[in-house]
Every structure is written in structure tokens, then in C-alpha cells.
Design a protein that fits this description.
The protein is built from 11 helices and 10 strands. The radius of gyration is 19 Å and the shape is globular. The protein starts with 11 loop residues before the first helix and ends with a strand. The relative contact order is 0.15. Helix 2 (21-28) runs parallel beside helix 6, helix 7 packs across helix 9 (196-206) and helix 10 (226-237) packs across helix 11 (246-262). It has 283 residues and is an alpha/beta fold. It has a single domain, classed as Rossmann fold.
């Protein structure tokens, strides 16, 4: 239930999903999701360079791992984590209390229309949390207003699906067909920022300058062994086999297990990913 949550037009389906089954699933898988993306998160924080007095905005903070790390870096400052998902924010608050992190707060809100205090943050960060604004210009304009002049923006977002081994293998196995193309940049999807030629003018129109894209190619760890990774992959991506009949689904799951077995590394079951590290400065 979203209750009195203020949501921008076009974001209603997102709010319903993240406050329903989707949000609950991500809570259940939060440890695996976060540990699997730790190399991407490390590069996000290295680039962000959060300092002790910084005031940090974490966009689409989910279950709070990035917010808690930011709060430790901004030990004399503060962090606000904003997300649509009530279930994920409940876990974030529990984590903060359990870990004794007192300079972080969490707010359930749609960052596209959330009532941020103007010029109240030094830096805004996001790990896969900024792609879903129905109106990208409006969303980033709202974030720009929340940043002080010369405040920084640091985002991690997906590159094109075909560039991501993880997505190619999931489609090949669970959907039983080769991955083809991807959604257009104007569609609400995880790949909203895949095309720099589309994203750069969005950010510039929203009030940012010095927009830059750095390609990152890091592994995503799906689990420590095949059984754990299979459970994770089927819970996250199992919907891709929905159109298969029973025999097709049996083959899809067998192909997935075989693929997982082929991707064993010393760190776990690892697949290549392709993302952008996007940086910008508020004008």
C-alpha cells in the first residue's frame, strides 16, 4: 500500500510494484543483491569522494546499504535516503539502528516530485535508482534544485542489454531465445541511461553541466554456489520463462544451471556486466 505517498504521473505502476511483491522480493534477496554488486558500489564511492562534512542525497536508496556507507563517510554531515518502497525502507531503518548509524534518515518518496529543501545537499548519488522517473527532465531538475550550486551528481546505471553478459545469458537460458536489442531510451526501464546521446541532454536540460560517462565492466556475483545462484536467478528473472510450456521451462532451468556451473570463479558464480558511471555538476 502506498497510502498518502505522493507519486508523479506515470510513476504509479512503479510505486505499486515496489510497495508490493517486487519490494518484498528485493528485501528477501537484499544481501545477495548487495554483495553481488559490491565492485560497482566501490567504484561509485571512489568517484563520489564523500567527505566528512558532506550532506548526501541517496536516490532510490532501496534497503539502505549505499546510504549507510555514505553516512560513515560523511561522519560530520548527514545522509537522506529516498525510495518509493516502504518494505525496503523498513529494512534500511532496521539496519541503521542495528549498526548504530545515527546521521542517516530515510524518507518514502518519489524523487521526481519529493519536496526537498532547496540547495540542501552537497552530493547526490544513486546505484541503479535513477532510471525510472516517468519524466527524466522533471526528476533530475528536482534533484538539481536540492543540490547546492556546484553540487555533484554520481550515478551508476546500466549500459545496453546486449553489452551485459548477465542479461544475454539470462535471456538465452530462461527465455530460451537470443537477446535482441533493448527498449528505447524514452521507455521506463532499467536501461533508460544506456545511450549517452540521450541522457546527456536530459541532464543538461535539468540544470547540470560537465556531464561525463565512464564505462565500467565489472562482474556480478549471483551466489557462492550453483544452488544459491540458481535460487537467486530464478527469483529475480524467472518471469522470463513465463511464456514457455512445461517442457520448455524444464529445459530453461537445466540450461540455467549449466550456465551457472560454467561461470564458477574463486569469488562465486560471476557474470560480466556493463554499466555507466555518470557524473555531473549542478550549474
Amino acid at each position: 500500500m502506498t497510502g498518502d505517498l505522493r507519486v508523479a504521473r506515470g510513476n504509479e505502476d512503479q510505486a505499486a510494484a515496489w510497495n508490493g511483491e517486487e519490494g518484498e522480493r528485493w528485501v528477501a534477496l537484499s544481501e545477495l543483491i548487495e554483495s553481488g554488486a559490491q565492485r560497482l558500489r566501490a567504484q561509485l564511492f571512489e568517484t563520489a569522494g564523500i567527505s566528512a562534512p558532506d550532506r548526501v542525497l541517496d536516490i532510490g536508496c532501496g534497503s539502505g546499504r549505499t546510504s549507510l556507507l555514505a553516512a560513515r563517510a560523511a561522519r560530520e554531515g548527514s545522509v537522506l535516503g529516498v525510495d518509493l518502497s516502504g518494505p525496503m525502507l523498513a529494512l534500511a531503518r532496521k539496519r541503521a539502528e542495528r549498526e548504530g548509524v545515527t546521521n542517516v534518515t530515510f524518507a518514502q518518496g518519489d524523487a521526481q516530485v519529493h519536496d526537498f529543501e532547496p540547495s540542501s545537499f552537497d552530493i547526490a548519488i544513486s546505484q541503479f535508482g535513477s532510471m525510472f522517473f516517468a519524466d527524466q527532465v522533471a526528476g533530475f531538475s528536482n534533484i538539481a534544485r536540492a543540490l547546492r550550486p556546484q553540487g555533484r551528481l554520481v550515478l551508476v546505471s546500466w549500459r545496453r542489454p546486449m553489452e551485459n553478459e548477465l542479461m544475454r545469458e539470462i535471456s538465452r537460458t530462461l527465455a530460451q531465445k537470443p537477446l535482441e536489442g533493448g527498449p528505447p531510451p524514452e521507455a521506463i526501464s532499467p536501461f533508460r541511461h544506456a545511450d549517452p546521446d540521450h541522457t546527456r541532454p536530459v541532464l543538461e536540460q535539468a540544470g547540470f553541466v560537465e556531464v561525463a560517462f565512464t564505462a565500467m565492466d565489472e562482474p556480478m556475483i549471483l551466489g557462492e554456489d550453483v544452488d544459491a545462484a540458481f535460487d537467486y536467478a530464478t527469483q529475480m528473472f524467472g518471469w522470463q520463462s513465463n511464456d514457455l510450456d512445461q517442457a520448455g521451462r524444464v529445459k530453461a532451468y537445466a540450461d540455467l544451471r549449466a550456465s551457472l556451473d560454467e561461470h564458477r570463479t574463486a569469488d562465486g558464480l560471476a557474470y560480466g556486466t556493463a554499466t555507466w558511471l555518470i557524473t555531473a555538476t549542478r550549474a
